[in-house]
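Researcher: Next entry in the queue.
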Amino acid sequence: YYTAGRAFKENLLLNPSTRFTKDPLSSRSIDKAEAVIYADASGRAYYFESEKSFGDFVSLATPETVYGYSEPK
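Model: Structure for this entry, 73 residues:
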């Protein structure tokens, strides 16, 4: 990770949510630095544990979805 100063570095160390998130398809905890990242049309970022997980997520898209995907149920 690269930071813009000491305060950012401390935040990375003290706040795990700055480094880790859950894959929206598998719900597994993943390191953001190692994730496959997808941003939807609104700019919201999604982090995936693998290209396969990303592909499976995108395959859930339906014509009714606003941004070309649907949340897993």
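Model: The mean pLDDT is 85.
Researcher: Noted, moving on.
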